[in-house]
Amino acid sequence: MADAEAIAQAARLLEQGKLVAIPTETVYGLAADADNPAAVAQIFSAKGRPSNHPLIVHVARDADLSHWAVDIPPVAQALMNAFWPGPLTLILQRAPGVTDLITGGQDSIGLRCPSHPVAQALLKLFRQGQGGIAAPSANRFGRVSPTTAQHVVDEFGDPGTGPVSAVLDGGPCEVGIESSIVDLTRLATHGPVLLRPGQISLQQLEQVLGCQLATTDHAAPRVSGSLEAHYAPHTPLALIDNQALASTITALNAKQRHVLVLAIDSQGPEIAALDREGLRRESLHTTRMPSDPHAYAQALYAQLRALDQLGADLILVEQPPRTAAWQGINDRLQRAAFDSTGVLDRLMA
Ligand code: TXA
Ligand code: MG
What we know:
349 residues, alpha/beta, four-stranded parallel beta sheet, 13 helices, 18% strand, binds threonylcarbamoyladenylate, binds magnesium ion
C-alpha cells in the first residue's frame, strides 16, 4: 500500500508533468496534471487513445469547481452531495481556461471526486488541493481496465521504464467497474442523460434527480467507453443464457474447443459434471463468480485478465440477471463480447 511518502512523491511527479498511475475505488487511473497540456498529451500517447476522446478530471472534496466548469446546475450539486466522493462522473459546461486536450474539443468537461483514500490524499496534496488530475483508466485503448497495481505494470511495464513514472498501490479496487457518467449539459432539451452505467443504479440516481434519467443516445457527446467494442480481452468472449449453458458447453466439448466458463455461483450439478470431464481433458475450466453484483463487479476485470493469459478458444460468460443492479456489469460484458459476434457459431461448426 502506498504510504504518505509515496503519495507525496507522486504529487511532486505530477507537478513536474509526469504520469503516475493511481488507485481509485472504481479502477486504476493513468494520471497527469490537468492544467499541463504537455503532460495530458502523454496520457494519449501512452494509451494509444484517439485525441478527440475527452478525459475525466478528478478533484479533491472541496476543490473550486469554477476553474473547470461554469453554469453548474442545482441538480449537479444534489448529485455531488449524494454521491461524492464516489463512483460518479458529472458532465458539465467547461470553463474557458480548460485545455481542449481534456475536453476533446467539446464544450463540456467530466468531473469526478474519487473516494479511494490514496486518491483523496493525493488530491489534497497536489497543488494544495486546488489542482485537477486528468485520469482515464490505466489500460491501453480498448482493453480491460486495471483493478490492481500489478495490472497497471502488466499494461505499461515497471514504473520508470516506460511512460509511467510511478504506480501508487492502493490494493484491489472496491467497485471494479468504471464510474457512472451523467451528462447534465443538455438539461433543457434532453434532461439528465446516463452516458455510462456503473455501480450506482439508475434508481439511486433518479431518486436524487427527482426525474427520469435518459440513457445514452446518438446526440450524446463522444464517450470512448460507449464505443461498441471496448473493455475487451484478446480471447473471444461470448455471453450465454443460463438455460443454454450446459448444451453449449457440450457442443463445444464435442469440437474439442478449449473453453473458459465464467459462471455465476449458484450452478447445477450438470455444469459441475461437465467441468470435471473438461478438466480431465484440459479443455474446459469453470470459474465461479459471485451471485452478488457488487462482488461480481469487483472480481470481473481481474478474472478476464487472468483468463486471457490462458490462450483458450473462448471465454464463455453466463449472462447475469438483466436487472438494474447488474446494469453496469451487463454493459461491460456486452461491449467485451461485441468483437466476438458470431464466434459461437464458428467454434461449434
Ligand atoms: O471510474 C472511472 O471513471 C475511471 C477512474 C480512473 O476514474 N476513469 C475512466 O476514464 O473510466 P476513461 O477515460 O477510461 O473513461 C472516461 C469516459 C470516457 O468514455 C470519456 O469519453 C468520457 O468519460 N468523458 C470524459 N469527458 C467527457 C465529456 N466532456 N463528455 C462526454 N464524455 C466524457
Ligand atoms: Mg477506459
